[in-house]
Amino acid sequence: MGFAKLSEIVSIAEKEELPFWEVVLRADCQERNVTQTESKSMMREMLDAMRQADSRYNPELRSASGMAGGDGAKLEAFRHKENRLIGDFLTEVMEKAVKMGESNACMRRIVAMPTAGSCGVIPAVLLTYEQQKDAPEDRIVEALYVAGGIGEVIAASASISGAEGGCQAEIGSASAMAAGAVTYLEGGSNEEIVHASALALKNMLGLTCDPVAGLVEVPCIKRNVSGAVNAVVSSQMAIAGIRSAIDPDEVIDSMRRIGKQMPSCLKETGQEGLALTQTAQQIAAHLKEN
Questions:
Q1: What CA–CA distance (Å, rounded) separates 276 from 262?
Q2: 93 in Cβ contact with 103 (< 8 Å)
Q3: In the prediction, which pLDDT does 2 show?
Q4: Which pLDDT belongs to residue 290?
Q5: pLDDT in tens, 43-64
Q6: 29 Cβ partners below 8 Å, 6+ apart?
Q7: Based on the number of CB atoms within 10 Å of its own CB, is 210 exposed (0-12), middle (13-18) or buried (19 or more)?
Q8: Tens digits of per-residue pLDDT, 240-257?
């Protein structure tokens, strides 16, 4: 799409009196030489794939390592209990985030948005919104364009790769994308959309990528929950009128710099962080033996 700054999207939207999502849609059509109908059809296919991945979650499945599987069902059961500190919306967001992450670990079909390791964040927020708020499909598709535009900027100006920027580049990016998307759904302005993204990303800066045994399971799956909840909370702050003290584009630039300074042992190599704990080493050794 060619956007390197969130301010570019906002500027075009304001100048041409277009919603954020439509600026992204038009850029996609121009870049891929497709019609708006074709572009939206592709986005609907991705949305449908997310719905299917969620509805076809199998609590009996376990990943090859045995580290992932079944926790989504625990959260589903928890959602029906009364002694919860959080409401139905966030509880379901947590549930869907884990289910999607576990489905990925169990080799089920998911949508990498923006990566497979962070596949649970955006679907958890948007599918929960669609179901609980009875939102029209067209609105969810538009929100996906908002998320896509934010992801494009992050990919162009920083990174969405854990191997390059740590987990801040995966879960952090997904959280920023989801925050902007749900802010749009809640009627947020373009300014609120980008500030929600900035607030979400700021909370994830410096997050390491330290997978146990090199697998996208521990701690990746549970981090999807944190990223999804962070997105909703950041959106609510932005809609309440809170703004990031640091310009949203500067937050993305900061993530890029942090990623470059982060040592390689904390960027998907499994050589430090949680991956180097005694428990993790025992798990890795057991998997190697078997």
A1: 17
A2: no
A3: 81
A4: 85
A5: 999 999 999 999 999 999 999 9
A6: 35, 36, 38, 39
A7: buried
A8: 999 999 999 999 999 999
For 9, other C-beta atoms within 10 Å of its C-beta total: 25
Q: Which CATH architecture has domain 6-289?
A: Orthogonal Bundle (1.10)
Q: Are 209 and 170 in contact (CB under 8 A)?
A: yes
Query: Which tokens sit at 227?
Result: 């990223």
Residue ranges of domains in the chain: 6-289
Give this prediction's pTM. Answer: 0.98
DSSP of the chain: -----HHHHHHHHHHHT--HHHHHHHHHHHHHT--HHHHHHHHHHHHHHHHHHHHT--TT---TTSSSSSHHHHHHHHHT-S--SS-HHHHHHHHHHHHHHHHHHTT-----SS-STTTTHHHHHHHHHHHHTT--HHHHHHHHHHHHHHHHHHHHHS---HHHH-GGGTHHHHHHHHHHHHHHHTT--HHHHHHHHHHHHHTTTT--B--GGG-SSTTHHHHHHHHHHHHHHHHHHHHTT---SS-HHHHHHHHHHHHHHS-GGGBTSSSSGGGGSHHHHHHHHHHHH-
